[in-house]
Amino acid sequence: MFFQQFLDIETEYRGYKKARFVVVPVPHEATTSYGTGAKRGPDAILRASRHIENFDEELGCEIYRQAPIHTLQPVAVKRLESRIAALLRDEKIPVILGGEHSLTTLGLKPIKKFYNNISVLQLDAHADLRDSYQGRKDSHACVMRRVLEICPAVQVGQRSISGEEWKFAKKTGQFRKIHWAGKLRALPEIVRQLSSNVYISIDVDVFDPGIVPAVGTPEPGGLSWYEVLEILKKVCSAKNVVGFDVVELSPRRDDLVSDFTVAKLVYKLMGYVS
Ligand SMILES: [Mn+2]
């Protein structure tokens, strides 16, 4: 159990009532198939966040002063849907910290009920379009297949897909909404494919593993820090981003870079959203 706040900020900006963003740590790991440790992700992100410069040099402000940030105690997956529903009723923007990727569908279900015209932007090395994996439909490797049962999705940064997923994507037309890593020329196209309300799901293995090595299923290639920021900035300026999750960090004792990079990503995205 931990009792940490996202960022090291004054008490008056941490309360629930004034909060624009509510950070929801979900230390969940049930179907990891390769490297393990995603359940320690939320704790590592929160710890690292306390060392982030609170002033954002790009936006020229202290984001948390305009958009205060409350952090919940860790939430169990079975309570996640109801917690998110409550946050939406209170007009908060949920920021879910994973944990493995399968929790995206749980966060998305109440969002879909609350907002019409919702779509998902997924940043991820993997397509995650399998119908089932290792006998489970709720595997992290199936999360986007489950998401597509809820709402449309645009996928960015992929460089790993199975033959079955390839066929599925071709057959359903999803293939046009996969923007492979290494050929990211289509930023306006990505924006066009998204609906007016957007939920963002970031599997941190979307980054080049040289940037974020601490992931369960690393893939060579991938996006740079500035490529990811450019995509997020563009989408946030064109769309109404109603929530996001950042998942699949598997922290390692000897690697502070990954934890810090992911924590900073969360704060950057809060800045773009607000
Ligand atoms: Mn992935």
Main pleated-sheet profile: 8 strands, parallel
Strand order of the largest sheet: 4-1-5-10-9-6-7-8
Q: What name goes with the CATH superfamily?
A: Ureohydrolase domain
- Note poorly predicted spans: none
| Shape category | globular
User: What fold name stands as the CATH topology?
Assistant: Arginase, Chain A
The number of helical elements comes to 9
Rg is 17 Å
Approximately how much beta-strand content do the residues carry? 15-25%
Binding site for Mn(2+) 1: 101, 128, 203, 205
Binding site for Mn(2+) 2: 124, 126
GO molecular function: agmatinase activity; metal ion binding
Organism: candidate division WOR-1 bacterium RIFCSPLOWO2_02_FULL_46_20
Task: Note the main attributes of this structure.
274 residues; alpha/beta; Arginase, Chain A; 8-stranded parallel β-sheet; two-stranded antiparallel ribbon; 9 helices; 34% helix; globular; binds manganese (II) ion; Agmatinase-rel
Could you give the topology of this structure?
Layout: E1 21-26, H1 41-49, E2 55-56, E3 61-62, H2 63-66, E4 69-71, H3 77-89, E5 93-98, H4 103-114, E6 118-123, H5 143-148, E7 153-158, H6 163-172, E8 178-180, H7 187-193, E9 197-203, H8 225-238, E10 240-247, H9 256-273
Parallel strand pairs: 1-4, 1-5, 5-10, 6-7, 6-9, 7-8, 9-10
Antiparallel strand pairs: 2-3
This protein binds manganese (II) ion.
Can you characterise this structure?
The protein is an alpha/beta fold and 274 residues long. It has a single domain (11-273), classed as Arginase, Chain A. The chain has nine helices and ten strands. It has helices at residues 41-49, 63-66, 77-89, 103-114, 143-148, 163-172, 187-193, 225-238, 256-273, and strands at residues 21-26, 55-56, 61-62, 69-71, 93-98, 118-123, 153-158, 178-180, 197-203, 240-247. The strands form two sheets. Strands 4-1-5-10-9-6-7-8 form an eight-stranded parallel β-sheet, with helices on both faces. Helix 1 (41-49) crosses helix 9 (256-273), helix 3 packs parallel to helix 4 (103-114) and helix 8 runs parallel beside helix 9 (256-273). The longest helix is centred in the C-terminal third of the chain and has 18 residues, at 256-273. It is globular, with a radius of gyration of 17 Å. The structure holds manganese (II) ion (MN). Manganese (II) ion (MN) binds at residues 124-126, 203, 205, 217, 248. Its cofactor is Mn(2+).
